[in-house]
Amino acid sequence: MSFLSVKQLNTEQIEKLFQTASFFKTKEVKPKLDDKIVSLIFFEPSTRTRMSFEVAALRLGVKTHLLNNKLGTSLEKDETLQDTVKNIAAMKPDLLVVRCNDDLDLAEMSKEVDVPILNAGWGTQGHPTQALLDILTVKEQQRGLLNKERILFVGDVKHSRVVSSHLELAPLLGYQIGFCGPEEMLIDSPGVQKFNQLSEGLKWATTVYSLRVQFERYSQKEKENQQLTTANFISHFQLNAQALSSWSKEGLILHPGPVNYGVELAPEIIKDSRNLILKQVEHGVLVRMALIYHFLKEQL
């Protein structure tokens, strides 16, 4: 079975993943996985996701090999994404970790290959491991029940696969979601509050989750207004010392990376005690270790 969406999990399985991830945080273990091979297939650029999957596998004793974008592969000769995945699957690795855009349908691909696929970021469809590591980061702050959490996503909600996965995870775990940003960057979603002013959103939020403006996913017409869009965003929705000065000292600041400092986050936020961005990166390794372990050693 592949893992493409948070919707495939129930609360018991999610808690089991969190328990395993937390165990790996405190215990150095070497399960007998040295005969396993994980293929990392990254058709889109990535630092945190790609390297954390690789570190996670290596810590478990799993061998990895990497396809990193088109350079040096038959994709430069116009081989399709679909054929590339099928050919790698035919080499019989034990697991495929795939990051791709919407041009590749991972759901269909999972039916066509006999190797399980882990979604490492699929276009705007979802990024389930990111959503899981985000919530593990919040849980580790020992803030009590998740149903008290109100997470405000600020920025380019429309193009965010992270948001897509949180919309699936929130009903399972009971936390609330809000959106804040320019109207053209937001979407309508049942049960989700929308805020057009950052100050109002922060009054509601217990956690603020900043999102990068993903101009690479914009149409050409939208890109023509890039400078105007960026200037407007900085003026009204940037998280900076002034905007956060009256916000709760108990609040948490998250970001999936990469951060464009000076746009969605001001440089001073790096030193804000509420900033948990590097904790998210740390927990990314642990969550991905847990997933690889359960896929290769012990099923959820």
Layout of secondary structure:
Layout: H1 11-26, E1 37-42, H2 48-59, E2 63-68, H3 81-90, E3 95-100, H4 106-112, E4 117-122, H5 128-139, E5 150-154, H6 161-173, E6 176-180, E7 193-195, H7 198-204, E8 207-210, H8 220-223, H9 226-237, H10 241-244, E9 252-254, H11 277-296
Parallel strand pairs: 1-2, 1-3, 3-4, 5-6, 5-8, 6-7, 8-9
Straight-line distance between termini: 11 Å
Spans of at least 5 consecutive residues whose pLDDT stays below 50 are none
DSSP E strands, number: 9
CATH first level of the largest domain? Alpha Beta
Structural descriptors:
2 domains, four-stranded parallel sheet, 11 helices, 300 residues, 15% strand, globular, 39% helix, Rossmann fold
Structure in words:
The protein is α/β, with parallel strands linked by helices. It folds into two domains: 6-125 and 282-296, Aspartate/ornithine carbamoyltransferase (Rossmann fold, 3-Layer(aba) Sandwich); 142-275, Aspartate/ornithine carbamoyltransferase (Rossmann fold, 3-Layer(aba) Sandwich), CATH 3.40.50. Helix content is 39%, strand content 15%. The protein has eleven helices and nine strands. It has helices at 11-26, 48-59, 81-90, 106-112, 128-139, 161-173, 198-204, 220-223, 226-237, 241-244, 277-296; strands at residues 37-42, 63-68, 95-100, 117-122, 150-154, 176-180, 193-195, 207-210, 252-254. The protein has a five-stranded parallel beta sheet with strand order 7-6-5-8-9, with helices on both faces. Strands 2-1-3-4 form a four-stranded parallel beta sheet, with helices on both faces. The N and C termini lie close together (11 Å). The mean pLDDT is 94.
